[in-house]
Amino acid sequence: MNELVTQLNNENYFSPEMNMKYMSVSQYKDFVGTLGQTGCEARALAKLRGEWKEEPSIPMLVGSYVDSYFEGSLASFKAQNPDIFTQKGELKAQFKQAEEIIARIERDPLFMTFMNGEKQIVMTGKIYGHDFKIKIDAYHPETAIVDLKVMKSIRDTFFVKDLGRVTFVEYWGYDLQLAVYQEVVRQNHEKKLPSYLAVATKEEYPDIEIIGIDQGIMDVNIQSMEWKLGRIQQLKKGEVTPDRCGLCDYCRHTKVLKKPIHFSELAVGI
Known about the structure:
The protein is of the alpha+beta class. The protein has helices at 16-21, 25-32, 41-48, 58-71, 74-80, 93-106, 109-115, 168-171, 174-189, 215-224, 226-236, 249-254; strands spanning 33-34, 37-38, 118-127, 130-140, 144-151, 157-160, 164-167, 195-201, 208-212. It is 41% helix and 20% strand. The termini are far apart.
């Protein structure tokens, strides 16, 4: 275990200092992207440096509401997000829905069995020599790793060029996330644990599932990271210039025009 492990905890996990010292899955996806979201080196680096902040959307806050309930920090979440309440002090409709999602989860014995592990467990490890940090929603020592997700739908699929239709798991890179969690846990406890997504939806009648991922798929995901991690570390150290995706909010906000373009360039990437 590297010497930084004693410095990292739940309180400073998302701090700028720890984000620069450690890689995380969300940070990796910011740089590299997923099937469902284009990565942008320039935006990812600006976020790390505190030059760009993305405000959470309402759907993201609904997911965070459910997350905070199961980790035992809902009171703190409410205090930090007063906008989730109406002027009368009642929860807005979207967050009443979050309460319904919680109630649906708690009605299901199997879902609750998976969620009743140790909460928000922080660990560090190395992926191809690069320091990584993880925070596990529900950790069952010697048994399983569980990550809670609140999605629009479990059954929706997404069309990806050259691949056809894929599930939300592949589209948003959740298979990669579990692969990293599993590898870091293995390094800490010398055992490769089964890893699951515990998923609930924001539908009128929330759907729920416990979803496993093939070990072979997770192994391939880890292997795919090797050459990309070196580039990210160079970017974080300022050794190379970040590429701009040209499509994200950050790129639009910071764009500097240099010359006219031809209208045919508008179709690039379509």
